[in-house]
Design a protein that fits this description.
Blueprint: E1 3-5, E2 15-17, H1 20-29, E3 37-41, E4 47-55, E5 60-69, E6 77-82, H2 86-98, E7 103-108, H3 119-133, E8 140-141, E9 145-146, H4 147-152, E10 159-163, E11 170-171, H5 172-179, E12 184-188, H6 196-203, E13 208-212, H7 220-235
Parallel strand pairs: 1-3, 6-7, 6-12, 7-8, 7-9, 10-12, 10-13, 11-13
Antiparallel strand pairs: 2-5, 3-4, 4-5
């Protein structure tokens, strides 16, 4: 069944209009009509079954009928990713959404090779990934910020899984098993890696947990997917 993310409050018997893009998608692409049903969610009220109540030339109005799934909280995991080229950044956002991260924070490091980022495009990708994978929310995507500034405002109770491509870091699963549950973040560096200054600073932070993803140097998107998958395997919501 079609799933759509909406921004309207959801409760039984409520009615609300879809935006222009969603209206065109339902009527012109999927050929849906009055009486057809779909699922909607808004990140707060759970997932609801809706019926197409009215169809106009440029609008669709839905009628909320019944609750399908109550709202659940996403794992308390933030992905910090050094901004990379558009294609790889879009892949990272899509896969991070599929793997359940709560927030995505693009960061700028000393070796970041691009600072341009289309946040609107990334939000579309995250929304579509949430719709397709059964998530009940859409991860927040923050505006890009310098890594130093982000770390200066860090909440010390949130541990930072620092994926270090150099040095003597412990294997990631061993580190996660030893560290245990709690709020976490994962930090993935740029294609050129962290600078020596950045690496030294990160290793000196009391909340940082340096880890290794193996003997090979991975591209940013591969590293992000690997780290998120292993975090989920060790600590994530698949166990509940």
């Amino acid at each position: 069944m079609i799933r759509l993310y909406v921004t309207h409050p959801l409760l039984a018997d409520a009615a609300f209009p879809l935006d222009d893009g969603q209206s065109r998608y339902l009527t012109q692409v999927m050929r849906k009509a009055v009486g057809d049903e779909l699922l909607v969610f808004n990140g707060a009220d759970g997932e609801w079954r809706c019926r197409i109540d009215q169809v106009g030339k440029r609008f669709v109005i839905l009628k909320v009928t019944s609750l399908q799934r109550p709202q659940v909280v996403s794992p308390d995991l933030i992905l910090l990713i050094a901004v990379v080229k558009r294609g790889r950044m879009e892949t990272i956002v899509e896969k991070a959404t599929e793997l359940g991260v709560a927030e995505i924070w693009p960061v700028l490091t000393e070796r970041t090779n691009t600072e341009r980022l289309r946040e609107d495009r990334l939000m579309i990708i995250a929304t579509e990934a949430s719709e397709q994978t059964g998530r009940l929310d859409v991860p927040n995507i923050a505006a890009p910020a310098k890594l130093d500034k982000t770390l200066s405002k860090w909440e010390p109770e949130r541990r930072l899984l620092f994926c270090d491509e150099a040095g003597d870091a412990v294997p990631i699963l061993a580190a996660l098993t030893d560290a245990g549950l709690g709020p976490w973040a994962i930090l993935i560096g740029p294609e050129g890696g962290f600078s020596p200054t950045e690496r030294a600073k990160l290793r000196g932070l009391p909340f940082a947990v340096p880890v290794s993803l193996g003997p090979r140097i991975l591209r940013a998107d591969t590293a992000a997917i690997s780290a998120m998958t292993l975090w989920q395997a060790a600590l994530g919501d698949w166990r509940t």
